[in-house]
Fold each of these.
Amino acid sequence: MQPGSTGAHQDPEQGAPDPSPENKVEVATPDLDAVAALEDRLRRALADLDNLRKRHARELDRERAAAANRVAASWLPVLDNLDLALSHADADPSAIVDGVRAVRDQALAVLASLGFSRYDEVGVPFDPTRHEVVNVVDDSEAEPGTVVRVLRPGYGTAERQLRPGAVTVVGRQG
C-alpha cells in the first residue's frame, strides 16, 4: 500500500475507487424501535435495582433494630435483679454479696446465650486469637508461653470475639 492510499482498489484510468462489492462498506441503519425497546429495558432494570437497594436498606435497618431489641430484652432480668439487690442494701452484707454474685452469673449467662462465653483459664497455652499479652514473667515451674494470670477475662470464640483476654504469660527460660 502506498502512503496516502485508502486501501481501496483504484481504477487506473479514472483514479476513482473500484466499486467492486468487496470494497463496499455497508452502514446499517439502526432499528429505532429496537433501540427504544432496549433503552426502556435498561431504564426498568435500573429502576428495579434501585428499588431492590432501597428495600434491602429498609430490611437491614429493621433487622438491626430487632437484634438490638432482643439483646436489650435479654438484659432486663439482670437489671431487675440489680434493682432488687439495691433495695435490700440495709440487709445482711453477705446476702448482698450473694445476690451480686447471682446477678453476675445471670449476666454471664446472657453473654453466653449471645455467643460470647467467658474464658479466663490459667495454665493454658497462650493463643494469639484469644489472648492479649500484657505482661511476661519468668516462672521455672511453668512452660514458656503458658498463661499464668488473667488480668481481664475474654469473651467469645476465636472466630467471633467480643474481647480478647488480657493475660500474663511465661517468657522463655534462659
Note: The beta strands are 118-119, 131-137, 147-152, 154-156, 161-163, 165-170.
Amino acid sequence: MKTLPNLSFGKLWNISFGFFGVQIAYALQSANISRIFSTLGADPHDLSYFWILPPLMGIVVQPIIGVLSDKTWCRFGRRIPYLFIGALVAVIVMCLLPNAGSFGMTVSVAMVFGLISLMLLDTSINVAMQPFKMMVGDMVNEKQKGLAYSIQSFLCNAGSLVGYLFPFIFTLVGINNIAPAGTIPDSVIYSFYIGAVILILCVIYTTVKVKEIPPKDYAEYHGITAEAETEKVNVFKLLVKAPKAFWTVGLVQFFCWAAFMFMWTYTAGSIASNVFDAPAAASGSGFVLDVKSPEYQAAGNWVGVLFAVQAVGSVIWAAVLPRFKNRKFSYVISLLLGGIGFMSVYFIHDQYLLFISFLLIGCAWAAMLALPFTILTNALSGGHMGTYLGLFNGTICVPQIVAAVVGGWILSAFTVEGSVPPEVNMLFVAGALLVVGAICVGIIKETSGTKEAMKQ
C-alpha cells in the first residue's frame, strides 16, 4: 500500500481554510441563538428545547454526507461539492434567521420561522463543516494529521473569535444594540450578514485551491480493493467493525459536548443575572430576566466577548498541546482545566475576572477539536473514512440532544418558586461533566489503522 506523501504547510492550510468561514457562522449561531429566542419571547426553562434542532439535524445529515461523499467523484472532487452547497445554503439562511422578528409576524409565527431557519442553518453548516474533517483523513498521512487538525483547530478558533465579537464591535461603532420587543437588535442582524459574506468567500478559496486525490490514487493510498469500492455500505456492519477508539473516544465526547451545550444555552442568562444584574420581569411561569432591558442586551454582547476569550484560550492551548509527549495526558489536563473554568463562573461577579474562566474553558475546547479526530482517523483505514467520520459525529450530536432534553428539567430543579431561574448553576453542572469526561479518557486505547491494513 502506497503511503501518503508529506504536504507543505501551505497545502495543509488550504485544506482547512474554508473552516474559518464556516466557524464564523457556527459562532454566530452558538453565541446568539438563546439571545434571539429569548428576545422573541422564549421562557428560560424552554431554551434548551430550541437547541435540540442543531444536533438533531447533525446526527441525520453528517452520516449521509459521509456515505454519499465516499462514493462521489466529479470534476470538483469528492468532498468539496458538499461543502460548497452547504455553505451556499447557510449564506441564504444567515440572512433570514436574525430577521425572525422583523417581518410583522405574531410572536408564535416568528418563533416558528426562527426554528425553521435554525434547522436549515445548522443543517447547512453541518453539510459544509464535515468535508473539512474528511479531507484531512483523505489527504494527510498519520505523521502530519496532528499538525493538520491543529491548523483546523486554529482556523476554527480564529473564526469563532471573529463571529463572537461582531455584535460587540458593531455596538461600539454605534449600531443599535437595543430593539423593540420581539425584534432582534441591528448589531446582531448585521453580524449575520457580514458572517455570510466571509463564509462564502472562504469556501470559494478552498474550492479553488484544493485538488482532492483522484479515485485510483486514493484507493492505492488507503488500501482499497476493487471489491471494496463496489460493495454496498451497511452502516450497522461498519459500526460493529468500528475500532475501539471510535467507542472509547465517543464516551469522552458524550460528557464534553453535553457540557458545552449547557454553556451555549445558559451563558447569556447566567452573565445577565450574575454579572450585569439584569432586572426581572413577570411571565406566565413566574419571573424571568427582562430581555428588553439594556443590561440583558449588554450581557448578550459580553457573552460574545467571553466566547472570543475562550477562542483565544483555545488558540494558545492548541499551540501547547503538541508539546505533550502523551496525547491522553494532554487530553485529561485540558478537560480538567475546562471543568475548573466552568465551575468558577458560579463564584465570579466581575465581568473581567470571567476572562480567566473562559481562557480555561478554551483549553478543553482546543482538545475537543483536535484530539478525538486525530485518535480516530489514525485508527481508521480503507474506503469508509467519510462514513465513519459521519457516524462519529453522533458522539457530538447525541450528547447535545440529551443535554437539550434534560436541561430544562435540571434548571427547574434549581429554580425556587417566585425567583429568576439560576441559569449559572447549569454552568457548574457543565464543569462536573468535563471532570467525568477527563476520568473516562483513561479507557481510550490508541491504534493505527494503517499498520493493521499493512498486516493484512
Note: The radius of gyration is 22 Å.
